[in-house]
Amino acid sequence: xxxxxxxxxxxxxxxxxxxxxxxxxxxxxxxxxxxxxxxxxxxxxxxxxxxxxxxxxxxxxxxxxxxxxxxxxxxxxxxxxxxxxxxxxxxxxxxxxxxxxxxxxxxxxxxxxxxxxxxxxxxxxxxxxxxxxxxxx
Length: 137
What we know:
By secondary structure, the chain is α+β, with helices and mostly antiparallel strands. The protein contains four helices and six strands.
């Protein structure tokens, strides 16, 4: 089974986990798989896989329109949002559904062969028939 791993800064991970960030915003989107599980890799200093979710609706639109639709549930301030999309004519909003926070964050090097933190996202298959590959911990 192929899943998606998203790199997300810890302050935004925290906003996802408390529910104030209900959409994840991306400049590019995964396209190779249908119905992926999306795992959240919290970047430095955490450097762990801390949760996963299933994507709900994925909206493709101009950043101005994404902000108008989802700004209140973005978990971002307006300046950060537009700095992220600076110079872009298109962006994606991914609704976070069925979020599962892991009781024990996972060391990605223990569950993903040859792990390298992705800049934005990457496709992953979990190593050694890890339980994470067949069920949500």
